[in-house]
Prior knowledge:
Blueprint: H1 6-10, H2 27-48, H3 69-99, H4 107-139
Amino acid sequence: GSPLYLHELLEGSEIDLPEVPVPPRNPELVARLERIKAKLANEEYRRMTRNITGQVRGPLHCPLSGFGPQKLRSVKAVVVTIFNFIVTVVAAFACTYLGSQYVFAETAARVLSAVIVASVVGLAELYVMVRTLEGDLGKL
């Protein structure tokens, strides 16, 4: 008549798991794996050192020698950012101008609404650029 509980039945019992047999490693496959690892390490090393040369460049060597790849990347990032800003503002103007033809009949109202929307989008884009620049300067 007394109730039987599972935790009482399992009290003091043990779990006997069979040991998993580890198969022996094939020496050919181990050697092949080592060759592949060495090849990948060499490729990674070559990739990391591909733009390093043993030559020392002096300031008189080239007039643009001080204009290294880091500065070039920085200039490229600024040009891309400015291009992105211009495209965004022009696209906002064009979409608003073309989309407002269903709301306004006069061209002046369409142009005015397009200028307002393009200005708002431009200000938002400037805000994002300033926040990004502020974040980048904080990392330096």
